[in-house]
Amino acid sequence: MPRANRHFLPGQFWHLTHRCHERSFLFRFARDRRAYRRWLFEAKKRFGLCVLNYVVTSNHVHLLVQDSGEGVIAQSMQLAAGRTAQEYNQRKRRQGAYWEDRYHATAIEGDEHLHRCIVYIDLNMVRAGVVRHPAAWTNGGYREIQHPPRRYALIDLDDLSALCGFASAGAFQQTHRQWVEEALMRNERQRDERWSEAIAVGSYAFAEKIKHELALKARHRNIDAVDGTCALREPANAYTAILGGESSALKTENAGFWV
């Protein structure tokens, strides 16, 4: 299966997606979803992983992160994925792959596109028909943003608020609730593959910038525009033909892009 290379850029926002092997529901039990979150928190402590939003579903995860240093994301994903798989296989006396071997990283432009990506991740389990509102899904960033835990928080609410252009966490929380309620009222529950299968999402200038950063790796990639949002595309046969739904994952030892 063709796979894109990833190219991580300091300070860049990334929407990461990692799917369980063959789309198996290996996260169907809450204890396993909590285990993945626990190892993400450990990655935050060890490597300084900057998590802005997330959702752990029954067979894949979405993470919105900011690249805070060379190798931070790759090391963090390797730790969280590896330890989660190890614990699960030992407990179940199971052998074989736990993950699709790669996670995918989509570069997200700041401002409006960052806001929209946050909401897109929040609504993942609503789109799946599991819950009617993201507040009902325990293992997601919506609840953590709106009701920050006293301990073991994955999301730094103050940093997230500032990155989204708000002077205080309270102001961001209020607007965040409005974004989600408006999206639900507009019935924005359809999957938009750009957020999880493109190399980059944002303005045309942003997509061109990312394409330039990739140089030869992006030479044959096209930039498509729909409703004012541009996406730097993967080759047409890269992911959807095999995975169907939200894209597969990209390999942690490469240096390059990516649902």
Main β-sheet description? 7 strands, mixed
Number of discrete helical segments:
10
Termini Cα gap = 16 Å
Order of helices and strands: EHEEHEHHHHHHEHEEH
Strand fraction equals 5-15%
Strand order of the largest sheet: 2-3-1-4-5-7-6
Counting helices, strands and paired strands, the structural category is: alpha+beta
Shape: globular
Describe the protein in words.
With 259 residues, this protein is α+β, with helices and mostly antiparallel strands. The protein has helices spanning 30-47, 72-92, 112-122, 124-127, 141-146, 157-163, 169-185, 194-197, 204-214, 240-243; strands spanning 13-19, 50-56, 60-66, 104-108, 200-202, 223-226, 229-232. The chain has a seven-stranded mixed sheet, sandwiched between helices. A hairpin with a 3-residue loop joins strand 2 (50-56) and strand 3 (60-66). Helix 1 packs antiparallel against helix 2 and helix 3 (112-122) crosses helix 7. The chain is globular and about 50 Å long. 44% of the residues are buried. The model is unreliable at 1-5 and 237-259 (pLDDT under 50).
